[in-house]
From TrEMBL:
<dbReference type="GO" id="GO:0016491">
    <property type="term" value="F:oxidoreductase activity"/>
</dbReference>
<feature type="domain" description="DSBA-like thioredoxin">
    <location>
        <begin position="14"/>
        <end position="214"/>
    </location>
</feature>
<protein>
    <submittedName>
        <fullName>DSBA oxidoreductase</fullName>
    </submittedName>
</protein>
<dbReference type="InterPro" id="IPR036249">
    <property type="entry name" value="Thioredoxin-like_sf"/>
</dbReference>
<dbReference type="InterPro" id="IPR001853">
    <property type="entry name" value="DSBA-like_thioredoxin_dom"/>
</dbReference>
<dbReference type="Pfam" id="PF01323">
    <property type="entry name" value="DSBA"/>
</dbReference>
Amino acid sequence: MVEQLSPPGKSRVVIEVWSDLGCPWCYVGKHRLQAAIAQRSDADRFRIVVRSFELDPGAPHEPEENVKSFLRGHGGTVGDVLRAERRMQALAGEEGLAYSLDRLNANTFDLHRMVQYANDRSRGFEFFSTVQDGFFAGTLDPHAPDTLADVAEAVGLDGRRAREILASSEYADRVRADRDEGLELGATGVPFVVFDRRVAAPGAQKVPVYGDLLQQVAGAVPSGLSLPTR
């Protein structure tokens, strides 16, 4: 289902994505959205901004096995979780995405605080995407502060400043405010994507659906047109 928020316009498009690290559909949906944008000859017109939405604010800070985490939050059986994970792994593989079954989950509040810092410096999507891709590939531990600081440095942020933030409670209010705003806009889970504050799309849509939404808010683009990078 796609929800219309307000009439379409003609301006450069900001795409806000309410997301959480450990959400498999957020991972897949992000790459589908990127693929839809890349298909347009005016791809530089679009800016993706990550907004914070903790799915499990009460999750423990100590990492736990993915199966245990899921059962704690959703119930069911170990077999149910493993079957669902294998289906998700197969789906991700069909789209060329790495998907480790040996992930460890933990509270994501500190990660979201780092996303807020990165957003202030126009690196939020790059930072979050790097962490999320590494997490699902099984090559990165997102629950280690040093790892988050290293990723921050890798995407052009100040590593020392990142460590200061992680050792404090900075940006906590903004993380909570993001989640509240998402709920006000109609999010009941993630991913929840809002295109230029005009159209909202809950869930991980297919690439053609995202393409239609881009056209709805930004218009069709003649073949070969290239807009300058901001």
